[in-house]
Write a structure and sequence with these properties.
This protein is an all-alpha fold. It has helices at 3-35, 37-52, 60-71. Helix 1 packs across helix 2. The mean pLDDT is 86.
């Protein structure tokens, strides 16, 4: 990998970190003004809990996406119900 490619990738990574931060610094005060600090606090706690408990997924998201993707190749049911 050349020095130029490394520099370009570095700048893309830095921009990917700074741009969401700048968007949050602009939009969060507006959002708090609309819904109130208490409601935003509850929302922030819910976001934190969802982030912490995301590790309990155990790959179910990927497995269900894989199963749904395979359904596209399946033959349609002829209207009979499985018993």
């Amino acid at each position: 990998m050349t020095q130029r490619a490394i520099s370009a990738n570095f700048l893309i990574n830095v921009a990917g970190t700074i741009l969401p931060l700048a968007a949050a610094l602009i939009t969060v005060p507006i959002y708090i003004a609309h819904i109130g600090a208490a409601r935003y606090g509850i929302l922030a706690v819910v976001w934190i809990l969802l982030g912490y408990f995301g590790f309990l997924d155990f790959g179910l998201s990927r497995a269900s996406a894989n199963a749904l993707g395979r359904l596209g190749d399946a033959r349609p049911n002829s209207g009979r119900r499985c018993s």
